[in-house]
Amino acid sequence: MSTAPTPRLSVVIATYNRLPLITRLLWQFAGQTLPPEQFEVVVVDDGSKEPVREPLLAQKLPYTLRVEVQQNAGAAAARHRGVIAARGDIVLVTDDDMQVAPDFLERHLAHHPPGSRHVVLGRIRPDPSIGDMPLFERWYAYLNNRMAEELSVPGARARGNHLYTGNVSFHRADYVGVGGFDKSLGQSEDVELGLRLEKSGCTFVFSRDAYVLHGSDHVSFERWLKRAHRYGMFDTQVARKHPEVRGVNPWRLLFETNPLTRPLLAATVVAPEATRLLTNTVMNVAKTADKLGLEKAAFAGTSVAYGMEYLRGARNEAGGWTGVAREVARYLQGRKE
């Protein structure tokens, strides 16, 4: 029976086929200003092709490391398993491709004063090598930066639909109390969890100082499009569960985006297959703008290409025109309330 003291904080990391990256991150936790006996790290290997548990446990780390192994079941299931296995009152979830500063854990804990029910969203900053990444990954970094700036404005309020699993901490009891991640969701499980945590009474706090650095090993445009498609599908499911939250309804794109882009998005809904070539053309124009140094135009084009594939996913989940009409009506009804 273990006699180790209960840690103040548990770090939960899901990993899949990224042994070098998770190893790098674990050693960065070894250099934390928070004493090693005050935290633990729980890694959940989500069915990596090469063994992860033995190489990680062979590392001579100063803190308690536990490695759970499961058959590939997706990030939501892996993170859920890690949070349930965690022993700390505060759980911090991050990704295996992140990097952290030495005071990272202390800064998160500082935002959880006694008696609070905070969900702390730490900033995600781009890795200094961001310039070497594909346009679509730099676009993600741009979106993260834009959200961080918006949430940093005095009086701005972080909400449940802002939750992301790259850098977030919360009370384990709150997580368990709302039922944890919905493991049926292949994407957007973080946003959906955030909505339930907010409804349960948690307060969301954005922290610029508890930041991570995010690089990326995603280089496939085709896989990026598939992710956009999946987000459209699963955001539709989230919107059904939370119809009163307009910010998660995928059909908001048809009404809230730049009017100049709406015809392209509408065309995708009307003829999803016939407009695939058009999506590629939009992305090629964005790449050309990027090469010319027109970053704003490049990001705008990337947003349109993403939105087109995203709405293909939403349309696929909605089914035929009857389903699309029902989902759009749900969004419009939410606008009136």
Task: Describe the structure concisely for a colleague.
The chain has 337 residues and is an alpha/beta fold.
Task: Describe the protein.
- Residues 10-137 form the Glycosyltransferase 2-like domain.
- InterPro entries: Glyco_trans_2-like, Glycosyltransf_2, Nucleotide-diphossugar_trans.
- Keywords: Transferase.
- This is Glycosyltransferase.
- With 337 residues, the protein is α/β, with parallel strands linked by helices.
- The chain has two domains: 9-214, Spore Coat Polysaccharide Biosynthesis Protein SpsA, Chain A (Alpha-Beta Complex), CATH 3.90.550; 221-336, no CATH class.
- Helices cover 47% and strands 17% of the residues.
- The protein has an eight-stranded mixed sheet with strand order 3-2-1-4-7-6-8-5, with helices on both faces.
- Helix 8 packs across helix 12, helix 11 runs antiparallel to helix 12 (295-318) and helix 12 packs across helix 13.
- The longest helix has 24 residues, at 295-318.
Sum up the structure in keywords.
Spore Coat Polysaccharide Biosynthesis Protein SpsA, Chain A, alpha/beta, globular, 8 strands, 47% helix, 337 residues
Could you name the CATH homologous superfamily of the largest domain? Spore Coat Polysaccharide Biosynthesis Protein SpsA, Chain A
Largest beta sheet: strand ordering:
3-2-1-4-7-6-8-5
The helix-strand sequence is: EHEHEHEEHEHEHHEHHHHHH
Q: Please identify, by name, the CATH architecture of the largest domain.
A: Alpha-Beta Complex
Number of domains: 2
Mind telling me the CATH class of the largest domain? Alpha Beta
Count the DSSP helices.
Answer: 13
Which term fits the overall shape?
Answer: globular
Mean pLDDT: 94
> What is the name of the CATH topology of the largest domain?
Spore Coat Polysaccharide Biosynthesis Protein SpsA, Chain A
Q: How many angstroms does the end-to-end distance come to?
A: 55 Å
Nearest-angstrom radius of gyration?
A: 21 Å
User: How many DSSP-defined strands?
Assistant: 8
Characterize the largest beta sheet: strand count, sense, and whether it forms a barrel. 8 strands, mixed
